[in-house]
Structure formats: structure tokens, C-alpha cells
């Protein structure tokens, strides 16, 4: 139990109120000291209003002196603690006055995603742009959802040690912008989030969705710039010669180790192994593994282009 005194003005006269706060139940009760009967009142709402008024007034005065980044970070921590103690939930503080850059990951996972996210966030911070991570790719944006549950602000201290971690800290989804309604919902959701720059990370399907969104933004004359970072272990995006998508080299190296071991076993035991490698509609990964591991035979889809059914 914690007790204190509070002076309030009621009915044109000052009265001293003593109240107790139960730490476990968070219940505040008070009574008038001068009353002989001792009216037992529950003034939780009244005391809460006074408390909020004092705290907010203090924050407004404190904000005037927060000009440096260090002081702004301290103020943000104080505000977060205040909302956590008073309201019981965490909030994310985002400066919407500056340009915001949204980062989105679509498609399957690939090695190096977190490294790309880390580089983007650090560079945006240096340029004074606020980076925002979009959770689960296009999944929630295409529905027009902009709740804090579906996006989060990113800071340099959040991504300095994630570059060597697998997967994606923003998660990912294979859902794409399949209809005009999906594109419109996504554009409006990004506008609601005050996003000026959008960086998408993904393969061919994610790139195509980003292209459709860019066309819609151009027609609507919105001030939004969209950039795509090619990510796929299939290496099936039209890139310049000798330029690989990140994730491809790592998948190829891992595949070479496995196939090389199987080649040794096959020679030792006099057996044949048939190995299938994923690659969507291209054989870049299969060919890279087969050549590097000195496999006896490597078959890729491009060899049978004339046999593929048209349409």
C-alpha cells in the first residue's frame, strides 16, 4: 500500500484528501480527512485526469529542450514507459514529419535477407529518413490494414546484429497483388502510413507486384518512389551478365557440398544417385551445382524448351 496527500479545490474551498493505492490491484480509494463520518469514495478517474495532465504538461515543456538526437531518444523512452505503466501497453513513437521508407519482404526465404534490411535501415538513418518495416510482405497491405500490429519502426540499434541471422526479421509471405483492388488498397495503406519510399525484397512475383504498384502510383500522381531488391535462389530475374541475386550463391555452395559427398559415395559403392533441385522454371541453380560438383549429368528445363506446351 502507498499513501500520500492531495489538495483539491471543491465547492470553493480547499480540502485535504488522503488516498491509498493498492499496488497489486491498482485500485485507488480516498476519503476526506475533515469529515467525521469519513466518506469512502472511489476517485480513480479524477486522480487519473490530474495525473495525466501533470505528466503531459511536463512532457510538453521537456520537448522544447529536446533538440539533440540523444535527448529525443531519452524522451521517447520516457513516453514509452509512461504508456506502459499507465495504459498497460507498449507504443511505437514515429516522427511522421520526415520522409518514411517502408521495407517489405515477399516470397520465400533466402540467405542474406536480414543483411539487406540492416543495410537499408542504417543508410536511411544516416540520411535522416525514418525506416519502417512492413510485416509479412503484401499480406496485410493488400487488405488496407495499417494497424501497428502489421508494421514497426526500425532503428539502427535494432538491426546491427541481424545480418548473420537466418530468415527475415520482418517475416515474409507469398501473397501478391493479384487484383486492382489489392493494388489500390496497398497504395492507400502506404499513403496512410506517410510512406514516400518503398523498398521491396523478393523474386519475380514480388517484383511484378511492385511494378504494378508503381504504375498505379504513377497514374495517381502520388509522390512515392519504389525500388526492388532481387532476392531468389533461382536466379531467374533478368539481371546484367555475371550479376547474381543474393541467396543464389549460398544455395549453390550448400548444394555443391551435398552433391560432392554423394558423388564420392556413388563411386565407392558403385551406385547411381538421382538428385532433384528446386528452380521454378529455370535451371540456373541445378546447372551451377552440377558443374561445380562435377556431376556426371545435369538436366535443366532450358534443354527442353521446344517440348513445353504453349500457353
UniProtKB/TrEMBL annotation:
Organism: Reticulomyxa filosa
One Gene Ontology molecular-function label: metal ion binding
Reactions mediated catalytically: beta-D-fructose 6-phosphate + diphosphate = beta-D-fructose 1,6-bisphosphate + phosphate + H(+)
PANTHER family for this protein: PYROPHOSPHATE--FRUCTOSE 6-PHOSPHATE 1-PHOSPHOTRANSFERASE, PYROPHOSPHATE--FRUCTOSE 6-PHOSPHATE 1-PHOSPHOTRANSFERASE SUBUNIT BETA 2
Gene Ontology terms: cellular component: cytosol
Function in brief: Catalyzes the phosphorylation of D-fructose 6-phosphate, the first committing step of glycolysis. Uses inorganic phosphate (PPi) as phosphoryl donor instead of ATP like common ATP-dependent phosphofructokinases (ATP-PFKs), which renders the reaction reversible, and can thus function both in glycolysis and gluconeogenesis. Consistently, PPi-PFK can replace the enzymes of both the forward (ATP-PFK) and reverse (fructose-bisphosphatase (FBPase)) reactions.
Protein name: 6-phosphofructokinase
Pfam family, one: PFK
Keywords, in A-Z order: Cytoplasm, Glycolysis, Kinase, Magnesium, Membrane, Metal-binding, Transferase, Transmembrane, Transmembrane helix
InterPro entries associated with the record: ATP_PFK, Phosphofructokinase_dom, PKF_sf
UniProt keyword Membrane present: yes
GO biological process: fructose 6-phosphate metabolic process; response to glucose
Gene3D superfamilies (UniProt xref): 3.40.50.450, Phosphofructokinase domain (3.40.50.460)
Domain Phosphofructokinase: 100-303
Transmembrane residue ranges: 39-60
Amino acid at each position: 500500500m502507498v499513501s500520500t496527500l492531495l489538495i483539491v479545490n471543491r465547492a470553493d474551498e480547499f480540502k485535504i484528501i488522503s488516498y491509498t493505492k493498492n499496488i497489486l490491484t491498482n485500485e485507488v480509494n480516498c476519503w476526506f480527512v475533515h469529515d467525521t463520518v469519513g466518506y469512502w469514495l472511489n476517485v480513480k478517474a479524477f486522480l487519473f485526469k490530474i495525473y495525466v495532465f501533470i505528466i503531459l504538461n511536463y512532457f510538453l515543456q521537456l520537448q522544447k529542450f529536446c533538440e539533440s538526437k540523444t535527448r529525443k531518444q531519452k524522451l521517447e523512452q520516457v513516453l514509452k514507459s509512461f504508456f506502459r505503466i499507465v495504459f498497460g501497453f507498449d507504443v511505437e513513437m514515429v516522427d511522421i514529419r520526415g520522409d518514411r521508407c517502408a521495407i517489405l519482404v515477399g516470397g520465400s526465404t533466402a540467405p542474406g535477407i536480414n543483411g539487406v534490411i540492416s543495410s537499408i535501415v542504417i543508410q536511411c538513418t544516416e540520411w535522416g529518413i525514418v525506416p519502417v518495416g512492413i510485416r509479412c510482405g503484401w499480406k496485410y497491405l493488400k487488405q488496407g490494414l495499417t494497424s501497428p500490429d502489421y508494421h514497426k519502426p526500425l532503428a539502427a540499434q535494432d538491426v546491427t546484429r541481424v545480418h548473420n541471422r537466418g530468415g527475415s526479421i520482418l517475416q515474409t509471405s507469398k501473397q501478391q497483388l493479384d487484383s486492382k483492388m489489392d493494388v489500390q488498397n496497398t497504395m492507400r495503406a502506404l499513403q496512410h502510413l506517410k510512406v514516400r519510399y518503398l523498398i521491396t525484397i523478393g523474386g519475380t512475383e514480388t517484383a511484378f507486384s511492385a511494378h504494378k504498384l508503381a504504375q498505379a502510383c504513377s497514374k495517381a500522381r502520388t509522390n512515392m518512389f519504389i525500388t526492388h531488391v532481387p532476392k531468389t535462389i533461382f536466379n531467374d530475374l533478368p539481371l546484367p551478365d555475371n550479376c547474381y541475386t543474393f541467396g543464389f550463391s549460398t544455395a549453390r555452395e550448400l548444394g555443391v557440398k551435398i552433391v560432392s559427398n554423394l558423388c564420392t559415395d556413388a563411386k565407392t559403392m558403385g551406385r547411381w544417385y538421382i538428385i532433384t533441385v528446386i528452380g521454378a522454371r529455370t535451371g540456373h541453380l541445378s546447372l551451377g551445382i552440377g558443374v561445380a560438383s562435377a556431376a556426371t549429368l545435369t538436366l535443366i528445363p532450358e534443354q527442353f524448351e521446344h517440348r513445353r506446351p504453349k500457353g
